[in-house]
Amino acid sequence: MTDGPRLPGIETDDDEDRIVCHVDADCFYASCERLREPELRGEPVVVGMGYEPGDTIGAVATASYEAREFGVESAQAISSALERLPRREALDPDAEDYDPDLEPEETGHYRPVDMDYYESIAGEVREILHDCSDTVREVSIDEAYLDVTDRTAWEVADGFARHITDRIRREVGVTVSVGVAPTMSAAKIASDFDKPDGLTVVRPGEVREFLAPLEVDLLHGVGPVTARALREMGLETAGDVAATDPKPLVERFGERGRELYDRARGDDARRVEPKGEPKSFSRESAFAEPIEKAEPKYEQIETLAAAVADRAQREGALYRTVGVKAVTPPFDVNTRERSLPGPIDDPELVDRIATDLFTEFETEAVRKVGVRVANLEFAAADQASLDGWEGRANEQRADGDGGTETDAADGEPAPSSDSGADNETDSSDEKRESTDDKTASTTDGRDATAHTEGQSSLADFS
C-alpha cells in the first residue's frame, strides 16, 4: 500500500482494496451494567446522573433499547427521562417518589455512571481488537476503526467481522455492531445500519450505491444543524449531495462543503492511523467460575505476565509500572500496581512483581485476573539494564523512597479523553463541526454525557 498524495475525489485501486472495520459497542454503559447485574437483561436500563429524589440536574449517559421504546435518549435531561420512564424504586410505598398508579412494566432501572468499571470492560474489548488487527484507531471508550487489509480478503470479510463480534460477545460479554467498507466514513455509517449486534459489509464499487438513499443526517460528520441547512438547499439524501454542484456547498460550509460532497460520493482517502503511542499494555483472562485455589490463579498470572512483556518487546516499549487486576464476585474490580525507578524491559521482573502483587488475592474467590505494564517509553536507544534498575530499586527501597505500590483509585494515572459524544473527533471535518451539531446529534445509540467523562478512550484496565 502506498501513502503518497491523492487527488481529491479520486479513488485508486489501492483504496478499493483496503478493508476497514468500524466496531461500535451497543449501548455500552448499559451492557456493562448488565454484566454486573444479569437480572437487568431484557429490562429498560438508563445510565446517568441526577435521578435520585431531590436531585434537580442530571443527564442520561445511555439508554438501553428497551428504555428507548419509552422515549428515553442519550444526552436527554434526566427529568425528561423520569417522566417517560419512572424508576422501578417508585413502586415501593416507602420510596419518596412512590406512585401507586404505576405498573412494573412502566418503570425502568436507573444506574449511576461508573467510568472505572466501564473502562475495565473497554480494556478487554481493546485487547481483542488489537489481536484482530495490527492497525487500530481508538475513537472513544465504545468504538474503534481497524484496518484489516492484511488479515483477510473481501471474499471472506463478513466472516472475519463476525469473528470479531463473536469473540467480544464470548470473551467479554457485550455486543458490538461492525461496519466493513473500503473507507472509514462508509464503515462508520455501515456499523450504525443494523444495530444492535449488526454486521453490514459494503464492498468495493458498492459504496456510492449504499450511501445514495440515506438521509443526509446519516452522513458521517453531519449533525442536525448541518442536516437542516442541507435540506434548506433541497438536498434530502446522500445521493442528492453527491449529484449536486459542489460549489454551493463550498460557499455555504467552506472547505467542509467539499468534504461533505466527497463523502456523499464515497470518496474518503483517510487511513486508519493509531492515535499516538499507547499508554499501557494489558492482558486479562476470565475463569469459567470464581476460583479460590491459588495454583490456577498464579498459573494464569504467569501466562498473562509473559504475554504482556512479550507484546511490550514486540512494540519496542519500556515500562515503569507493573500492575495486576483481580475481579472478585459479584463484579468488584481490584487493581494493584508497583512503580519502578526507571524504564525497563524485563519479562522475568514483570512475572515476579505481578506474582507478588497478587498475593493479596491468593485465598479470595476470583473470577478474572489481569496483568498490565504502564508508563511506557518508546525509544531507539539501548534498553535499560534490569540489574541496574533493580539494584537501584532495592537501594531506594532500603532508603524508603523507591518503588511504590498503590491502589488504582489513588495511584492510577487518569485515562486520556476525547471530546464529542455522537460524532467522533478524529478528522478535520469533525473538529470543525459546530457545537450545536455535536451536542444535538445524540440519538443514534452512542453513550453520551453532558460532559467529557463519558468519552474516555479505550484504555487498559484502571
Automatic annotation (TrEMBL):
Its EC number is 2.7.7.7. Binds 2 magnesium ions per subunit. Mg(2+) binds at residues 24, 142. Its main location: cytoplasm. Residues 92-105 have a biased composition (Acidic residues). The active site is at 143. One of its GO terms (biological process) is error-prone translesion synthesis. The keyword Transport does not apply. The record marks 29 as: Substrate discrimination. One of its GO terms (cellular component) is cytoplasm. It is found in: Cytoplasm. It catalyses: DNA(n) + a 2'-deoxyribonucleoside 5'-triphosphate = DNA(n+1) + diphosphate. Its cofactor is Mg(2+). The keyword Kinase does not apply. GO terms for molecular function: damaged DNA binding; DNA-directed DNA polymerase activity; magnesium ion binding. Residues 20-223 form the UmuC domain. Poorly processive, error-prone DNA polymerase involved in untargeted mutagenesis. Copies undamaged DNA at stalled replication forks, which arise in vivo from mismatched or misaligned primer ends. These misaligned primers can be extended by PolIV. Exhibits no 3'-5' exonuclease (proofreading) activity. May be involved in translesional synthesis. Monomer. Belongs to the DNA polymerase type-Y family. This is DNA polymerase IV. It comes from Natronorubrum tibetense GA33. The gene is dbh.
